[in-house]
Amino acid sequence: MSRMQGLLLLVFAKYFHLPFLRGVQTETTRTGLGGYWGNKGGVSARMSVFGHTICFLNCHLPAHMENSDQRMEDFESILQQQQFEGQAATGVLDHDVVFWFGDLNFRIDDLEMQVVKSAIDNNKYSMLWEKDQLNMAKDSETVLEGFQEGPLKFSPTYKFDVGTNTYDTSGKKRKPAWTDRILWRLRATAPAGAALNAGKRGSISGLTSGTKVTQHCYRSHMEYIVSDHKPVSSIFTLQFPYKVDVPLVTLIVEDEWNSIADATAIFKVAPNYSRSSWDWIGLYKVGFKHHKDYVGYVWAKQEEADFQRQEHQVTFTEEELPKGSGDFILGYYSNNMSTIVGVTEPFQVIIPGQNLLLTSLFSLFLSLSVLPAPQQATLL
């Protein structure tokens, strides 16, 4: 997660991908009021995914029709300021794949209000694309080279009267525009960007190394009326050859824990993994959202005598187990890498003794609830 005033970026991943998401870093850049205010700017999250570098950049750029040049200047400033640690992909555009999105605030030039609304009413969006400031900037701004966007086949997403699907009827009467956008960029590896240019107008783009981005849909959501903007969404498939396909830590656990004695796990570490004495293994409910959402955890301690061992075992005590049954996952958290580097498949925890306490408390509650009113008052 990366957050700044007015900007929030959340990245979710399926649990079985977690061991292959490495080098996660975030950055924020304020551009409002000369860099002092966070209502405008950019937030980013970068990571290595199966050995390929990916960066997500969410921006809120300056508003108003006449500020197209200022939007480009702010975008370039964000790119220059956002630098990441490590030898690979130190800047946003150094990544193999970049997704750039947000309230970019680009407007439709030249055309009068009635012309724009008539084009919208008649679904003649193509005549508006030609006057869209972002589309025009792609032909002149070097920093936008390689950025692609799916066709804008939905109505402009700004500006609406709040609570309606009616374009601005206030005294300002803002001209409709596609302010909310989602673009992507693949780092060129072919000579002169040949692979990028070949698919520039399509919904599929790829690198000569085999990386491919496919956009399946790009749409707005008119049903949301709490803002003067309409949100946009897009679904992509990202395909690339594996560079990393073996987790740094392999966790082995039984399919079920039926007693406290079953609450053990075995883990194996890869030869190239550097352990820390602060590494731990967390027990997570299926559907967890953060590495700190564990039900319980145990330290993945390493004694001096363990250095030559291939397998290590940990045991969860009764206090570290859930108080009810359900489906759970074990995850190995690396302190050095600040991420989960190994997970199990989901398994069931069904420990009768743990459920007995809840059953007894529930029975007690039922017993108290049927007592006559005076006795209830006395008990309280």
Per CATH, the architecture of the largest domain is 4-Layer Sandwich
- Mean pLDDT score: 86
* Strand arrangement, major sheet: 3-4-5-6-8-7
Secondary-structure-derived class: alpha+beta
Biggest β-sheet strands, sense, barrel:
6 strands, mixed
State the separation between the terminal residues, measured CA to CA. Answer: 45 Å
How many extended strands?
20
The name of the CATH topology of the largest domain is Deoxyribonuclease I, Chain A
CATH class wording of the largest domain: Alpha Beta
Q: How does the overall form come out from the CA principal axes?
A: elongated
How many domains comprise the coordinates?
A: 2
The helicity comes to 10-25%
Strand content: 25-35%
Query: Helix segment count?
Result: 7
Order of helices and strands: EEEEEHEHHHEEHEEEEEEEEEEEEHH
| Low-pLDDT runs | 190-202, 355-380
